[in-house]
Amino acid sequence: MTKKKAQKKTKAKKSKVTKKKKTTKKTSSVKKTVKGLDFVYDPAPESKAVVHIQNKYDHFIAGKFVAPNSGKYMKSINPATEEVLTKHAVGDEKDVDRAVKAARVAYEGVWSKMPAEERGRYLYRIARILQERSREFAVAETLDGGKPIKESRDVDIPLAAAHFFYYAGWADKLEYAFPGKSVRSIGVCGQIIPWNFPLLMAAWKLAPALAAGNCVVLKPAEQTSLTAMLLAEVLQEAELPDGVVNIVTGEGPTGAALVAHPDVNKIAFTGSTDIGKLIAKNVAHTTKKLTLELGGKSANIVYEDAAIDQAVEGVVNGIYFNQGHVCCAGSRLLLEESIAKDFLKKLQKRMKTIRVGDPLDKNTDLGAINHKEQWEKIKTLVDQGKEEGGDFYQAECKLPSKGYFFSPCYFAKQSGSSLISRLEIFGPVLSVSTFRTPDEAITKANDTPYGLAAGIWSEKGSKIHKTANGLKAGVIWANTYNKFDPTSPFGGFFESGYGREGGLHGLLPYLEVK
Amino acid sequence: MKIEKTIKLFINGQFARSESGRTYPVNDNYARVCQASKKDFRNSVDAAKSGEKSWSSKSAYNRSQIIYRMAEMCEGKRDQFVSLFKTTLSASDKKANEMVDEGISSFVYYAGFCDKYSQTIGSVNPVSGPFHNFTTPESVGVVALIDSDEFNFGATVDRICSILVGGNSVIALLGPTLPAVLAPLSEVFATSDLPAGVVNLLTGHLEELAEVIASHREVRSISYQNESKKFYETVREKSVDNMKRIVPNHKELKSLENILSFVEYKTVWHPIGV
């Protein structure tokens, strides 16, 4: 099938399933008073018309959409409206087996035999189609996961495309990746991804795996499978050979079936440390390779010589970006004692200007909490945190009457052993503590079983380097935070998992190096 | 009359008996060695933790010189090693000398890698934005080495050194074939200006220690070179609790891959601007 024909086919299918467009929901205006003048933000909603969501989605196996063996489908909810968005197939062992077999056939028969340059070209093609359909993907991602459109539009989707573009170029250059060594692909990879950056995580997993010559069975998160299924359309459009990528949707048991499948050579998982440990225990009795990108409780250290206004911005971006649903979120703010009081004043002032509400509104800073269970978990933890004491501050925001919304907040003056300062909350909740010396800052920052990321704010280069050297974390942002790039390795120390994603180092988990 | 001695454990730069007071004869009563207990292992981890702090903060050039010094000290103790290998393993003079040569060769090889390995795998990453972004390898922390049942002096030295290069500290449980090698080997480490606790050597039984090694939360990685599949699975499963990195199959000697098995990658971002 030519590319044009494939496009026509997809378009025809789309028009068939186009839903009746609903009138855009009225966005609540936010009133601000600055120096006696009233400012009102008018609603600036992004149109939903660009995306066509089917009533239900099947698995994507061997290049085709196939109904689940069980015949069961699960609802996918728009967290900003609590309305059912679509339904996804629930995968069982038979579905997973079918997908793994398809991947094996594709690996043995096509993908591992194809010239590397050609393999790369498919990835380039996927990157390009994603770029062309980026607005559609951004709207879909926001509808499905509740993240602000400005984030899905400016971060998630462009980065996802960039990952495919970056690894596309590696496909025929693998012999230069590790000079003096011979490399080869591993085989069939099972990849399980989380709900916080659905398409981006799919891209982080698929791009290096495919560039290295592996075939994949991908299991997206049950809460956010929509963009993975749209990606399946892109793969069809790109004419990726059947079975090279298979997508099986479902909940925990579907993922467990994939982990347990005997013909999977490698498991890559991004998600919570608890589930990661379960997977590692399961894999311990096999010869499967494993990479894990797990939780964090990352420290954001602000020294007294920092550019304070920039640091305030950085702290806000560090914890409230994507509703705090970020494994590397700067969820522990460590302030040098001398500036703590003033800094918190400025932080409160800044938090008051955060716009919480309709994720499709282009002005929205903080969208909806991804799903109900997470929303309830955050509320429970914050309630428990309040019982533990300390200073609690929450920005007063007018929240929409429907949907899972939560205003940004922080806890200060809590003990280092409090729930809020130790648990990964995965929400817009910041824990604040103070320090007196760089050594104390480093010790406090490292005092966690995790080691994913950390931030440092200082105008003194030597202090930044000393601190960065002392921090036990895989990614360190100095005078910035939450920056990602396909060329930059990402991953953590200790209980934040093993392996890196991105860059040259991100190839290692998908290659046998001899 | 010959003076008999018990070969002591090497913990925190000191020669210590097992706190349990247990010893056992080895190699047809060639000598008695101490039977390390779980407590001895935990003490070694404490020592290794502080050892790692001082070792990983030394300059790469300095680490390189100290490991090279080990080669010099090993050469100085050649006769002691040769006589041990001849007596206990019935090795010929030639074979025993070759074994020492292999060990020295690994010391020299890894000494030279301390200030080079990071340039082979570190990178400056061309991110699409005004940021300076670089990735460097650094130490993992305390690494436990569970050595092979079969004695191979060169391989044991190779396994220890590959852990040391990246700035890690090591607690090695020596294999049962020739635990008495602990005596001359510990003297090499004790006389090379190596900070206390960076290398700790234990003799004892894997079945007694496997679980405590695998479940200790301050141990960050395990080099598992033993042949027992049963203990391998135990070690892997128990290691999950603090997500230890398990490194099996250290086979090819003198290789960069062995060093890279015991590093973590750290990526640092900083804006570029005025």
Beta strand count of chain A: 22
Mean of residue pLDDT values of chain B: 96
Question: Order of strands across the widest beta sheet of chain B?
Answer: 10-9-8-11-12
Query: For the terminal residues of chain A, how far apart are their CA atoms?
Result: 38 Å
| Radius of gyration over C-alpha positions of chain B, nearest whole angstrom | 19 Å
> What is the helical fraction of chain A, as a range of percent?
25-40%
The CATH topology of the largest domain in chain A corresponds to Aldehyde Dehydrogenase, Chain A, domain 1
The tally of domains of chain B stands at 1
Q: What is the strand content of chain B? A: 15-25%
Quaternary structure classification? heterodimer
Computed CA radius of gyration of chain A, to the nearest angstrom: 23 Å
* Overall body shape of chain A: globular
Structurally, how many domains make up the residues of chain A? 2
Integer average pLDDT of chain A: 93
Please tell me the CATH architecture of chain B by its name: 3-Layer(aba) Sandwich
Count the helices of chain A. How many? 16
What is the CATH class designation of chain B? Alpha Beta
The percent range for strand residues of chain A is 15-25%
What does this entry look like structurally?
The complex is a heterodimer of chains A (514) and B (274). Chain A starts with a helix and ends with a strand. In chain A, α2 crosses α9 and α3 (116-132) runs antiparallel to α5 (149-170). Chain A has helices spanning 3-17, 93-111, 116-132, 134-145, 149-170, 174-177, 198-211, 226-237, 252-260, 273-283, 308-320, 337-352, 372-388, 419-422, 438-446, 461-470; strands spanning 30-34, 37-41, 56-57, 59-61, 64-66, 73-78, 83-89, 183-185, 188-192, 215-219, 245-247, 266-270, 289-293, 299-302, 332-336, 391-394, 409-412, 429-435, 453-457, 475-478, 497-498, 511-513. Chain A has 16 helices and 22 strands. A seven-stranded mixed sheet of chain A has the order 16-17-18-15-14-19-20, sandwiched between helices. The model of chain A is unreliable at 8-28 (pLDDT under 50). Chain A is of the alpha/beta class and 514 residues long. In chain A, 40% of the residues lie in helices and 18% in strands. Chain B is of the alpha/beta class and 274 residues long. Chain B has a single domain (6-271), classed as Aldehyde Dehydrogenase, Chain A, domain 1. Chain B has ten helices and 13 strands. Chain B has helices at 38-56, 60-76, 78-89, 93-113, 117-121, 153-165, 182-190, 206-215, 229-239, 256-260; strands spanning 6-7, 9-11, 14-16, 23-26, 31-34, 123-124, 131-139, 142-146, 169-173, 199-202, 219-224, 245-248, 263-271. In chain B, strands 10-9-8-11-12 form a five-stranded parallel sheet, sandwiched between helices. In chain B, strands 1-5-4 form a three-stranded mixed sheet, with no helix packed on it. Chain B is globular. The chains are: A alpha/beta (514), B alpha/beta (274). β20 of chain A pairs parallel with β13 of chain B, so a sheet runs across the interface.
